[in-house]
Amino acid sequence: MSKYKKTNLSELREVQLKEIEDIKIGIVTAKWNEDITSALTEGCEQTLLEYGIIADNIFKVTVPGSFELPMGAKSLLSRERLDAVVCLGCVIQGETSHNEYINQSVANGLMSLGLASGKPCIFGVLTPVNMQQALDRAGGKHGNKGIEAALTALEMIELEQQLDKKDRSIGFLKK
Ligand code: RBF
After folding, report:
1. pLDDT in the model for residue 95
2. What percent of the chain has a predicted confidence (pLDDT) above 90?
3. Whose CA is nearest to atom 14 of ligand 1?
4. What value does the CA radius of gyration of the chain take, rounded to a whole number of Å?
5. Fold of 21-160
6. Which of 1, 39, 130, 146 is the most buried (most CB within 10 A)?
7. Could you give the CA distance from residue 92 to residue 39 in angstroms, rounded to a whole number?
8. 64 CA: nearest ligand 1 atom
9. Catalytic: 142?
10. What value does the mean pLDDT take over residues 72-86?
11. DSSP tag of 6
């Protein structure tokens, strides 16, 4: 079997974090399709706690719909010294193309915000064709994408910590 087999990303991964008690993470959740997004939020928060993030250092807010996720993330980032922000939503395809506008805007918005702020803005938005596909990804047969979003945030923080360590060691090279 190829070592590149598709992994179920909800499986636990190893993440090595330093000073875990100081890590602060935001969770922004869209209220549209609340049954789905609350399951994503629960998976996300539970995972952060399991990995050792302190409950008081998890900052949760809600926004009306997925379109508002980038603005919610920006507002949260400007008020709290966050190490990452996870954005969770569910945009179900309808009879019109509204979902395409929302999804593209949110993806672009979160990418721009992440690059501009230097803080990982995690795209945890389901883009299913129907409710069943959403349920399958919010604790169903395809896992819970809220868990994966939490793990992605932790891995990006780990990367930042590893790079910081390299930066600091430059001044201590042996002659
Ligand atoms: N927001 C979602 O998070 N998921 C949806 O499936 C969703 N469907 C929408 C469908 C239509 C036709 C409209 C107008 C909005 C929808 N929204 C949805 C809300 C959207 O993200 C946003 O909150 C509103 O457009 C207000 O800016």
Report:
1. 87
2. 84
3. 98
4. 17
5. Rossmann fold (3.40.50)
6. 146
7. 16
8. 23
9. no
10. 97
11. P
pLDDT higher than threshold 80 for residue 167:
no
Residue 65 in contact with ligand 1 by CB distance below 6 A: yes
Least confident interval from 49-63, 64-78, 82-96, 157-171: 157-171
Question: By the 8 A CB rule, do 85 and 52 touch?
Answer: no
Indicate whether this model's pTM tops 0.85. yes
Q: Do residues 87 and 122 lie in contact, with contact meaning Cβ atoms separated by under 8 Å?
A: yes
The predicted model gives 34-51 an average pLDDT of: 98
Nearest CA to ligand 1 atom 8: 91
Q: Which of 18, 79, 98, 165 is catalytic?
A: 98
Count, residues in the chain: 175
What's residue 2's pLDDT?
37
Nearest to 56 by CA among 100, 87, 25, 35: 25
Q: Whose CA is nearest to atom 13 of ligand 1?
A: 98
Q: For ligand 1, is residue 33 a contact (CB within 6 Å)? A: yes
Cα–Cα distance for residue pair 170/83, rounded to 1 Å: 24
Q: Is 98 in the pocket of ligand 1 (CB under 6 A)?
A: yes
